[in-house]
């Protein structure tokens, strides 16, 4: 049960990260589409957006879109905005069907278990200098070797 005195937990930072991520994905997909369909000489439209993104996209999706509008490239800005909405709808559908949430949780749990397992192997063998470099095979061989010497 939630403590009534505890402040309400906010996920605004997650919302912001998702917005930036979906803008990035929309930009990436837009560039891929443009690379295939750009008929301008030397793929000038594709190259312009690619170079603009390389210099101006700083993982701040909304700021990037505003910069596109400021550059007079509302065509690109609107295309990315539309693509961002399509991607979000696809993700929500995937997530709401239970596939995204359950798989995401399973991935987190699997990764957490793997990290804990690696840490356990490292802590069981304090003779290895660098735990970062310790892997299961190395530890297993060392344990076998040590047990043979006993």
From TrEMBL:
Provide the GO biological process annotations.
Answer: carbon fixation; photosynthesis; ribulose bisphosphate carboxylase complex assembly
What SUPFAM superfamilies does its record include? RbcX-like
Q: Which UniProt keywords apply?
A: Carbon dioxide fixation, Chaperone, Photosynthesis
Q: Which GO terms describe its molecular function?
A: protein folding chaperone
- Membrane-spanning residues: none
Is Transmembrane among this UniProt entry's keywords? no
Q: Name one Pfam family in it.
A: RbcX
Domain of life here? Eukaryota
Q: What is this protein called?
A: Uncharacterized protein
């Amino acid at each position: 049960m939630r403590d009534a005195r505890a402040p309400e937990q906010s996920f605004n930072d997650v919302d912001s990260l998702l917005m930036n991520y979906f803008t990035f994905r929309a930009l990436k997909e837009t560039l891929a589409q443009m690379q295939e369909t750009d008929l301008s000489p030397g793929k000038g439209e594709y190259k312009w957006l690619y170079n603009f993104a390389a210099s101006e996209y700083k993982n701040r999706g909304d700021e990037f879109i505003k910069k596109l509008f400021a550059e007079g490239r509302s065509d690109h800005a609107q295309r990315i905005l539309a693509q961002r909405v399509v991607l979000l709808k696809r993700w929500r559908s995937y997530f709401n069907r239970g596939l995204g949430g359950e798989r995401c949780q399973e991935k987190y749990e699997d990764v957490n278990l793997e990290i804990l397992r690696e840490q356990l192997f490292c802590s069981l063998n304090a003779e290895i200098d660098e735990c970062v470099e310790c892997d299961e095979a190395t530890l297993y061989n060392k344990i076998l070797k040590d047990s043979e010497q006993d």
